[in-house]
Design goal:
heterodimer; A: 261 residues; mainly alpha; MetI-like fold; 0% strand; B: 305 residues; 2 domains; globular
């Protein structure tokens, strides 16, 4: 296919991808008291509503806190596992990878009602702990894949050299391995955070009435009225996601350069 | 050696390591004990908080109230299940076809771009990829609503007098799902196309092929692993969609995930477990098929972020 024809086919699709998101950003600055397009005027009215309402801020802080706990748990478990996974016997590696990566493909509703079914017996419904435990399962695959990817470019003989020069196993890990896989760990942590922060299906079942996360709060709102506050919240989420993704991209570029790739 | 290996002697050379493997059966375990210790916490965690809960829930389909396959047998003449299942598969087919026809040209363009244009295009593809499904579904509610952008634009242009019913229809679900799943189609295809040896299309052109002929006879066949990977991925993900159809769909075009959630709300666990098992088996079977096809396995990788 030649270039002009291709460009003609591609431009509308890119517009289709970007337009709904741009629209949300525009609507969030609307001055109207109800949802209408185009907005009659612009202002920060809906951001003011968001930042002055405990109904929105409490779930926001809860989501941020849950995300932080998930990052800590998933990054620790995932990084350790990726370090071991790399050198397990083939069969064991396949089995572990299948278990650990499966949350990426098992339908969300199946995971959600499974943990709901089990967690209900232990009084974990409506608690932040229940959400942290379940979100960690969903976030761990991103840490494992990203740390594994950074280990793939890592020459294990460097560690052996450090050991033969008298480093303790921990010393060799901290001074040789860790600096080289640090960006892989950080990228995994960023994706773990986004996964937990955006998660809705599990939250619908586990939030109960005591642990309403931000997506859950948006969902409840959308069922009744769609006022532009949600557009303001969405814009802030889009901004946060973009900043985190930009961070992950910079990390990737920098580690690529450091490894001479 | 890694942090979990206590006081082991210096790593053995390869020939010595090989020799220890021939020895007693326990020696492989001993040799890898450090690695097993590193992996164990996560495996334990996933078994306790993920695998066991999901399996215990699925087990309700065959042990409720006593060991039986009755629940599955009942599915085969359950009109509600058939209606929902047919709607789910139909939606998945439409969404996959839509994503493939819109996504292939973008993947092709993306694989040919260099520099700033490539970066900008990639950002346009990736930003929605990582924007929450909830936010994107909300965007479609704003676009398609009674006073949404499309209705207002059509009315301003004098095409319609009364607003069209766009939201809460099957059409809205298809459109929003194509929007959400497009990147899953674009990334594997672009990944395969980028690996394609640029000498091949040039050789075809040099031998007198038209641009369209080069595309049809060289580029398209070689990109098939990416096409199959993207198609299966989008299809499988469509089958399990919940949030988007719940927000922009109508009450009559329910998808499988919605039926499962509804049955859980009614505390009808055996039926919900049965439906979950069906959805999970369909998902795993299709992905297993995908892994078995040559070349497709590698093409899936870039899509899994």
């Amino acid at each position: 296919m030649n270039r002009p024809a291709l460009r003609l086919a591609v431009a509308p699709v890119l517009l289709f991808l970007a337009l709904p998101i741009l629209l949300i950003v525009i609507v969030s600055f609307s001055s109207a008291s109800y949802l209408t397009f185009p907005p009659p005027g612009f202002g920060l009215r809906w951001y003011r509503v968001y930042f002055s309402s405990a109904d929105w801020l409490v779930p926001t802080w809860l989501s941020l806190a849950i995300g932080a706990a998930v990052v800590a748990l998933a990054t620790t478990l995932g990084t350790l596992a990726a370090l071991g996974l790399d050198r397990l016997p083939r069969a064991a590696r396949g089995a572990v990878a299948a278990l650990v990566l499966s949350p990426m493909i098992v339908p969300g509703i199946v995971v959600a009602i499974g943990v709901y079914y089990a967690f209900a017996r232990y009084g974990l419904i409506g608690t932040p702990l229940g959400l942290v435990l379940a979100h960690t399962c969903l976030a761990v695959p991103f840490v494992v894949t990203s740390v594994s990817a950074s280990l793939a470019g890592f020459d294990r003989r460097l560690e052996q050299a450090a050991r033969s020069l008298g480093a303790t196993p921990w010393g060799a890990f901290r001074q040789v391995t860790l600096p080289l896989i640090r960006s892989g760990i950080l990228i995994g942590a960023l994706f773990a955070f986004i996964t937990s922060f955006d998660e809705l299906i599990v939250a619908l079942f586990l939030s109960g009435s005591g642990a309403i996360t931000l997506p859950r709060r948006m969902w409840d709102d959308l069922r009744f009225a769609i006022d532009p506050t949600i557009a303001a919240v969405s814009t802030l989420i889009i901004l946060l996601t973009a900043v985190l993704l930009g961070g992950a991209h910079l990390l990737r570029v920098r580690s690529g350069r450091a490894n001479g790739r | 050696m890694s942090a979990g290996t206590p006081r082991l002697p210096l790593p053995l050379p390869a020939w010595a390591a090989k020799r220890t493997k021939v020895g007693a059966r326990g020696s492989i375990l001993a040799e890898h004990s450090g690695q097993f210790l590193l992996v164990a916490p996560l495996v334990l965690y996933m078994l306790v908080f993920y695998a066991a809960p999901v399996l215990a829930m699925l087990a309700r389909s065959v042990i409720d109230p006593h060991p039986t396959l009755h629940n599955f047998a009942r599915l085969s003449h359950d009109a509600v299940f058939f209606h929902v299942f047919a709607n789910t598969v139909l939606t998945a087919v439409i969404v996959t076809a839509g994503a493939l026809s819109l996504g292939y040209p973008v993947a092709l363009a993306l694989s040919r771009m260099r520099g700033t244009a490539a970066t900008v295009t990639l950002i346009i593809v990736l930003l929605p990829f990582w924007t929450s499904v909830l936010v994107r579904s909300y965007a479609w509610m704003v676009l398609l609503g009674r006073h949404g952008l499309i209705n207002e634009a059509l009315r301003a242009a004098g095409v319609i007098d009364t607003p069209l019913r766009l939201l809460n229809t099957a059409f809205a679900v298809d459109l929003a799902m194509i929007h959400i799943l497009l990147p899953y189609m674009i990334l594997p295809i672009a990944g395969v196309l980028r690996q394609l040896d640029p000498a091949l299309p040039r050789a075809a052109a040099g031998l007198g092929a038209t641009p369209w002929g080069t595309f049809r006879q060289v580029v398209l066949p070689l990109s098939m692993p990416g096409v199959i990977a993207g198609t299966l991925l989008v299809f499988v993900l469509s089958l399990g969609f919940y949030i988007t159809p719940a927000l922009v769909g109508g009450p009559r075009d329910m998808m499988l995930s919605q039926l499962i959630a509804q049955q859980v709300d009614l505390l009808n666990w055996p039926y919900a477990a049965c439906l979950s098992a069906t959805l999970l088996l369909a998902t795993l079977a299709l992905l297993g098929l995908c892994q078995a096809l040559p070349g497709v396995r590698g093409a899936l990788r870039p899509a899994i972020r």
